[in-house]
Design brief:
One of its GO terms (molecular function) is telomeric DNA binding. By secondary structure, this protein is α+β, with helices and mostly antiparallel strands. It has a domain of about 45 residues. About 25% of the residues lie in helices and about 20% in strands. Strands 3-4-5 form a three-stranded antiparallel beta sheet. A two-stranded antiparallel ribbon has the order 1-2. Strand 4 and strand 5 form a beta hairpin. The termini are far apart.
Length: about 140
C-alpha cells in the first residue's frame, strides 16, 4: 500500500498524492528573465495598469503574488503595494512575505530576572553613549 503525503493546514490535514504533486507541486525553475513575446505598445494596456494601481490605492488593497528567486528557491508569496511617484508615475512596490518556516525563535532571559538587570556602570555607559550621539549639539 502506497503512502500518501499529508500536510497540516491550520487544524486540517490535507492529503497530497502524486497527481496533486504533478499538478500543484513545486517545479524547479531557474533564475531568469524570459521574453514571452513581442507586442505593440498599447495605450490601453498602460491605462489598464494605471487604473489597477489607482483602484488599489482607492480601495487600500495590495496584491498577493507568487515569486521564484532562482532554480534552487521555493516559490514565495510577495505583496505588491500600489504607489504613485512624486512625478505621478503609477507603479507597484514588492515586499516578500515571511512564512512560518522563516521564523527563527530566540529565547531571551526574562526581563524581571534580577540577574539581568543593568548595573549602575551599565546605565552610566548607556547615558554617555546617548549623550555622545546627540546630533543637536553637533558641529558641521
Amino acid at each position: 500500500m502506497a503512502s500518501i503525503l499529508r500536510y497540516k493546514f491550520g487544524s486540517t490535514i490535507v492529503p497530497f498524492n502524486e497527481e496533486d504533486r504533478k499538478e500543484y507541486g513545486w517545479i524547479k525553475e531557474s533564475r531568469c528573465l524570459k521574453l514571452l513575446q513581442f507586442t505593440k505598445r498599447s495605450q490601453d494596456a498602460c491605462v489598464a495598469v494605471s487604473a489597477l494601481v489607482n483602484a488599489m490605492i482607492a480601495e487600500d488593497t495590495v496584491a498577493l503574488v507568487r515569486y521564484v528567486y532562482n532554480a534552487a528557491s521555493h516559490p514565495r508569496i510577495m505583496a505588491l503595494f500600489p504607489r504613485r511617484s512624486k512625478k505621478g508615475v503609477e507603479m507597484f512596490v514588492g515586499l516578500t512575505l515571511p512564512f512560518y518556516e522563516d521564523f527563527r525563535g530566540i529565547d531571551f532571559p526574562p526581563l524581571d530576572d534580577p540577574t539581568t538587570e543593568p548595573k549602575n556602570h551599565h546605565l552610566s555607559a548607556m547615558h554617555a553613549l546617548a549623550k555622545a550621539m546627540d546630533l543637536s549639539k553637533a558641529y558641521l
